[in-house]
Amino acid sequence: MKALTFQRYGKSPDIGFSDLPRPTPKPDELLVQVHAASVNPIDNMIPTGLFKAVVKFQLPATLGSDLAGVVVAVGNRVTRFKPGDAVFANIFDLGTGSLAEFAVVPEQAAALKPANLDFVQAASIPMVGLTSWQALNERIGLRAGQKVFIPAGSGGIGTFAIQLAKWLGAKVGTTTSTGNVALVRSLGADEVVDYRQQAFETVLRDYDAALGTVRGETLEQSIGILKPRGKLVSLVGPLDVAFARARRANVILKAVFALMSRSIKHKAKQRSVDYSFLFARADGDQLAQIGQLLETQRIRPVIDQVFPFEQAKEALDYLAQGRAKGKVVVQMLPTP
């Protein structure tokens, strides 16, 4: 089968197509013919080696995390799915990739594709959906009436997280460029700061929580708009000791992560803000709940551009430019 792979970590990862054997599902896995797969910033970060110590791949490794497709075979312990089922899933951090003609998916990571979505739309959801769900629901415990800051509102995470926060009853503040103000307002954003005209930290006040979706100064500046005992959950780093413990990292990595997060932790503590780093996990049950929100149209997919499979590398390059409005999707098979 054809798959988009990288050969090594570093500045020259040699990303390109490879012919690989079709994978064989283990007893608790599904073999899925991939119809579409979306790309995420982490897909561009993995080949650099940034997460080499905590995300394990056997090289050459297939890229990609999100997929939607049709089950063609199941392992003998699988009970919830059968050949012919249309599914979607996130397989990040499971040692395999989705930018391929076929992919193996653990049963616990899969959910039935929402009936009202096509494969391209469904493939755009898993990573951003699970990340938003785990950040807002689990880590923050966002409640109706609270205020949450979600920067970069027109991006992949932003377009989903704004809608989820609104469904949870929260008020949402965000940043975007002039041309995307109407988009983020249509998704439910209450306070929109055009970052080309104003600095958000001079406009927004008394927020209960914030997501870290942008590297650099934005993360630190978010601390200043939070109430005491507010929560800052970063999706982009720096990694912290709690994350190291959750990954059962060795003493050296714990020390490294402690050093990496020392500055942001210190600044957060000065304002009585709780900082944590979140690495989303695959979870088919949560994805099924997200699927219900999509089927009832409480949340809608936002897709910027669709690339044919032959241009999967170009899709990653386009995503890396940081200008996508919503998700970038790679389509393997034409829409039925």
Provide a short characterization of the protein structure.
This protein is of the alpha/beta class and 336 residues long. It has ten helices and 16 strands.
Structure description:
By secondary structure, this protein is of the alpha/beta class. The protein folds into 2 domains: 2-125 and 301-331, Medium-chain alcohol dehydrogenases, catalytic domain (Quinone Oxidoreductase, Chain A, domain 1), CATH 3.90.180; 127-277, 3-Layer(aba) Sandwich (Rossmann fold). The chain is built from 10 helices and 16 strands. The strands form 3 sheets. Strands 3, 5, 6, 7, 8, 15 and 16 form a 7-stranded mixed sheet that branches. Helix 3 crosses helix 4. The longest helix is centred in the last third of the chain and has 20 residues, at 251-270. It is globular, with a radius of gyration of 19 Å.
Task: Looking at this protein, list some descriptive labels.
336 residues; alpha/beta; Quinone Oxidoreductase, Chain A, domain 1; Rossmann fold; seven-stranded mixed sheet; six-stranded parallel sheet; 10 helices; 26% strand; EC 1.-.-.-; ER
